[in-house]
Design a protein that fits this description.
Blueprint: E1 3-8, H1 14-31, E2 35-38, H2 44-47, H3 55-68, E3 71-75, H4 81-96, E4 106-110, H5 117-120, H6 123-132, H7 144-152, E5 154-157, H8 160-168
Parallel strand pairs: 1-2, 1-3, 3-4, 4-5
Helix pairs in contact: 1-8, 4-7
Length: 170
């Protein structure tokens, strides 16, 4: 079965657009003819920012592709409400089709924050933060409800290459 991937990430910064392009190209390279990818930033009918698409146009255009996809590849870096909404849509879809496994969609998440507490925790760092006051946390936070949706219907990876390898084996 052909993999139909919806690539969800922010698309407003140069860094996000380049990262999306890199993931898109790596997916194409690894999966070749076995994949079709929808990346919203390439849908200029609704995402050409020199023009004006309405929120309804964007919602309808992207929802059509979320329904079409059988894999949601979601980048959870940053705080993009669109990505959270797309994850929520797919989780809701899967909940609605709970008794029909053939309609289920897989969610694959990428979270690359290098401050991962399991890699950077230390007692000294913890003591320093306690004396620094408000908004001085050196550890990342990611919304656990969103993480739960990803993990309930797929898997979360720290590296894009690992996520792409996982998708290639589905």
């Amino acid at each position: 079965m052909k993999k139909r991937i919806y690539l969800a990430n922010g698309l407003f910064s140069i860094a996000d657009r380049k990262f999306n392009e890199e993931i898109y190209n790596k997916l194409k390279e690894k999966l070749g003819e076995d994949v079709e990818i929808y990346a919203p930033q390439f849908n200029l009918a609704i995402n050409d920012k020199t023009k004006s698409a309405s929120s309804i146009d964007i919602y309808n255009g992207d929802t059509e592709k979320l329904e079409w996809a059988n894999i949601l590849l979601a980048v959870l870096d940053g705080e993009d409400l669109g990505v959270a909404t797309e994850i929520g849509f797919v989780a809701g879809w899967n909940d609605a089709y709970r008794t029909e496994p053939e309609k289920q969609k897989i969610i694959v998440g990428i979270y690359t924050d290098n401050r991962d507490i399991s890699k950077t925790y230390s007692e000294d760092k913890n003591k320093d933060m306690q004396s620094c006051g408000v908004a001085e946390c050196q550890y990342p936070y990611i919304n656990l409800y969103t993480v739960g949706a990803v993990k309930n219907y797929g898997k979360l990876f720290a590296m894009p290459e690992d996520a792409i390898d996982y998708i290639s084996k589905l």
